[in-house]
Structure formats: structure tokens, C-alpha cells
Amino acid sequence: MVTAMSYTGKISTSGNSEAIRLDKNLFKQHPEFKQQATVRADVIGPGTILLQVINSVEIDNADDPMVSAFLSFIEKDAISNPANLTPVSAEQMAQVAALTAGVVVTDDDELD
User: Fold this and answer.
1) Residue 70 host element (H or E)
2) What is the pTM of this model?
3) Domain 9-100 bears CATH identifier 1.20.120
């Protein structure tokens, strides 16, 4: 289980480049973000980026970063607010079965 943490920082300059300075605890608690690691920043919304190490053996680069970020968000919310979790009912499962009856999907299918 991965617990999501938040870290603060500031935008500054480093030489001729812009830089984002982050709290040192991030690097202590997540060594995959070591100095000289190659990272990718994806803008996922106004004022929001997703930062991913792309040259680390600890990270499976085949994972979709958006899905991973979403699942981490859901996990954090479930841990913080367990009273909000409700089991799927038999009626809901019957509805899902009816909606997907006859649908065949394989791992090789491309979804639009």
C-alpha cells in the first residue's frame, strides 16, 4: 500500500533554467527522485503537474501515469475516509452484467 504524501517547494532559477525546489523530505522518503534522475513532467490540469521518474528500475514505465495518479488519489481517499466506502450490491452487479452482456474485450483492443 502506497500512502500519498504532499511536499511544498518554490519555483526558482538554476543557471539559465527554471527550477522547482522541493522539500528535502521528499528526497529522503523517495530515493527514486535522487539527483541526476531523469524525470518527466506532464501538465494534467491548470496549475497541476504529474512528475515521474523515467530512468529508474524501481518504477514500471509501462504503467499509465494518469491511471497511477488516479489510483493513488482513490487509495488516499479510501484510507482517509473509510466510512465513504460501500460494497457493490447484487443489484448493481446485475445491472453491470446486463449492460456488458455480449461485450467481448481483449488486452489488444484499442479503446477510443
Assistant:
1) helix 65-80
2) 0.46
3) no
Higher pLDDT, 2 or 37: 37
Report the b/e string of 78-96 with b at 16+ CB within 10 A: eeeeeeeeeeeeeeeeeee
CA-to-CA separations, 75 to 7, 30, 47, 70, 94, in angstroms, rounded: 18, 18, 23, 9, 26
Question: Residue 100: its pLDDT value, please?
Answer: 94
DSSP 59: S
Backbone torsion region of residue 41, taken as left when φ is above 0, otherwise alpha when ψ lies between -120 and 50, otherwise beta:
beta
For residue 71 the three cell numbers come to 489510483
* Structure confidence by residue, pLDDT tens digits, 20-74: 999 999 888 888 888 888 888 888 888 888 888 887 555 454 567 778 788 888 8
Q: How far apart are CA 69 and CA 19, in angstroms?
A: 22
